[in-house]
Design goal:
The structure holds two protein chains of two kinds. Chain A contains six helices and ten strands, in the order ααββαβββαβββαβαβ. By secondary structure, chain A is an alpha/beta fold. Chain A has one domain. The two termini of chain A are about 25 Å apart. Chain B has three domains: about 140 residues, Beta-Lactamase (2-Layer Sandwich); about 80 residues; about 170 residues, Histidine kinase-like ATPase, C-terminal domain (Heat Shock Protein 90). Chain B has twelve helices and eleven strands. The longest helix of chain B is centred in the middle third of the chain and has 106 residues. Classes of the chains: A alpha/beta, B alpha+beta. Chains A and B meet through α1, α2 and α6 of A and α2 and α3 of B.
Amino acid sequence: MTRTFHSKSPAANRVRGARLFLAVGTLALACGAFAQSGESDIPLEYAVKATYLYKLAPFIDWPPGAFASADAPFAICVVGDDPFDDFLAHAIAGRAFGMHPFVVHRLDALTGDADCRIAYIGRLHSQSVAQALASVQGTPVLTVTDSDTVADNGSIMQFVIKGGRVRFDIDNAAAARNHLSISSKLLNLAAVVKNNG
Amino acid sequence: MKSLPRHYRLALRPAVALAAAAVLLVAGALASVYQYESARAEHVRQLHVQVGVLAASVTAAAAFDDRVAAQEYVDALMLDPRLDAAAVFNDAGQRLAGFQRDGSPPIAYVPPGSAAAAHADRLLVSAPARQDTTTVGVVYLRGTPSPWSVRLARFSGVILLTLMAVLMLAFVAVAQAALTRTNAKLHQRAAELADANARLLEEMEQRSRTEAALHQSQKMEAVGQLSGGIAHDFNNLLMVLKSSLALFGKRIRQDDEVIEQLAERAGIATVSQADADATRETLQRLADLATQRRARQQQIQRYLQTAQEGVDKAASLTQRLLGFARRQPLSPKSLELDALIHSIQPLLAHSVASGTTIRFQLRSSWHVLCDSNQMENAIFNLVNNASDAMPEGGEITISTEDVPAEAARSGLDRALGDHVRLSVADTGVGMTEETRAKAFDPFFTTKPVGKGTGLGLSTILGYVMQSNGQISIDSEPGRGTVVHIDMPRARADIATETA
């Protein structure tokens, strides 16, 4: 039933576009707060993406073996170039997914033993995106790429800019390959959902 | 089990009605409070459910700041008219979506743990938007207060109960007032009736007294007329009898002397001429006859005398009857009663038995108009009666006093004006009321047969009435009797005095 209200009608999209500026404005305020506390300036787009990264965690149904222990940290890995600077580290400070405190790891290359739950794959230098994705295939790792840097390539999620806003596409088949199921609520927000890629 | 007295049950009725009304009111109030609270609780419960649904629905939108999606959820929820406002905030306290009806203020964000908690308004509920254990925002809902029509409908029951109670009270009050009024009226009527009854009884008594008096006076009148008429005729007849008897006596003694002389002479002749036997026998026989005749005549004279005495007695009787019938010839003179009594004082003293004394208290100086002989007779008669009433002796008091009209004791006395009261009191056996009532009746007597004629007081009554006076008796058994004769003061006396 709720799905009915999320049909992507043209009228709804127009409304969304009209309200974008407000959203950007509030985010700008939030970023301004970080800026005042002496953090480095990053584009608003990446600040939004950084918050989205850790907010994704609860909308994913993690398989039982995803965490080594009940209070094992929830690792968000930034692979390759880091567009978030210190923003992400500060944003997750003190936050946790349930009993799992968020931690940020910076990796040059994604490997299977990195123990990442969410892996943001930026601009890579030491491996290809496909290699990175392949290294974690079959393990409970939510792979996220950015359309700015990587073309559509088989990651589970990909940030896209639509109508001036940060949205995301979701590849449900890729998620299934990594034994992850994604909340329908999140799917509802997705710009594009691919079920068999 | 004893039932309550009737008046008690009556008194309980309004109290019962009041209690019933109070119970109804209390029950109504309780019911309305319960209904109000339960309806409110239900509303709040529904609000909690709705805010929970909204919170669960908008988690993703809140997490990823999708205002459009969040607003769509809110808009969908706000189709429910019982919601007044809604708001979705992200975890930074930024409002992502919201709605409020016209005229309602938007919902403000309250940081968690703030003192101004959401309970200031009972219809404002909130729920955290949680995905798993992660709180991504907070959702507020505010319910619309129930419209007046709904509230009135909800309270219709208690309003009905209240109306019923008020009606009942009003009815009881009206009934009670009517009852009280009716009671008061009844009391008044009863009092009036009692008054009227008392008046009626008094009037009846008065009337019976008057009737008795009238009856008595009519009886006296009738008896007086009858006896007066008879006495008059009898008197005439007695006069005829008397004169006839007188003539008869006279006639029967006629020639007696001649016969006596002749007989005497014959007796002498008989003595002188003894040889004429035949003649002697005849003469002897004549002398015997004369002697016998003389003896017979003496007898006749005795009979005559007896008859004449009887006629005299009868005449005296008829005279007294005439006196009672107020038909006796009177020759009234102006006189002082004191002087009259003084003149007969010695005779009075002798007329009573030895053990009886007479006291005189004569204090009158006014003249009265009356027949002195009859007045003397009346006084003798009263003294005689008094003496007879005291067989063992006692004291008779004859008193007189002047009674001015203004000092009169009763209405009758007052009608008499100035008068002199003559009283003859004894210390005798007194009279019963019955005797007193009949005392003036002719031929009524309490004396032994042959001693009284029963005409004494009757004659006095007739005489006093004929003299425009009054007579009355005060008596009780064992306390003596007083007979009062009230004679009006003579006009000549008044004239003399004023002159």
